[in-house]
Amino acid sequence: MRDNLSDMLVRIKNGQQAKLFEVNLFSPLPKNCLQILNILYKEGYIRGFKKVFIGKKLYIKVLLKYDLDGNSVIKKVVRVSKPSRRIYTSIKSLWKIKSGLGLFIISTPKGILTDNDARILNTGGEILCYII
């Protein structure tokens, strides 16, 4: 069994620490990983992502983002719910990370959402990860 979400998050975190401009993710990625990349793009944690053929293999190229001083935008990525231990929460018991500076990514019955979107839709679910 392979945990694609943890692999994706660790590659992004390690790429940020090594000051790389881009990282390659193996394809095919599951839909939830692509949805999380889309959330990271909309929230401003990455510059973008695109599908690229290198030779005959398909990769997902993630463009990493840094501030003007060269510091990485993503400070910390923590996987909360793992394949061995699932963590579920209601929206009322979900707390704010760093007074609203970070975000939770939650898998809900209405799709994969950030904690702010889940509060608006008033739905809880499985906490996949949080990003600061």
How is this structure best described in words?
- This protein is of the alpha+beta class.
- The protein folds into two domains: 1-73, Ribosomal Protein S8, Chain: A, domain 1; 75-132, Dna Ligase, domain 1, CATH 3.30.1490.10.
- Helix content is 26%, strand content 33%.
- It is built from three helices and eight strands, in the order αβαββββββαβ.
- Strands 4, 5, 6, 7 and 8 form a five-stranded antiparallel β-sheet that branches. Strands 1-3-2 form a three-stranded antiparallel β-sheet.
- The two termini are 28 Å apart.
- The model has no long low-confidence stretch (mean pLDDT 92).
- C-alpha termini separation: 28 Å
CATH topology (level 3) name of the largest domain: Ribosomal Protein S8, Chain: A, domain 1
The averaged pLDDT comes out at 92
| Main β sheet profile | 5 strands, antiparallel
Strand content: 25-35%
Structural class: alpha+beta
Number of domains: 2
SSE string: HEHEEEEEEHE
CATH level-two architecture of the largest domain: 2-Layer Sandwich
The CATH first-level class of the largest domain comes to Alpha Beta
Précis, in short:
The protein folds into two domains: 1-73, Ribosomal Protein S8, Chain: A, domain 1 (2-Layer Sandwich); 75-132, Dna Ligase, domain 1, CATH 3.30.1490.10. By secondary structure, the chain is α+β, with helices and mostly antiparallel strands.
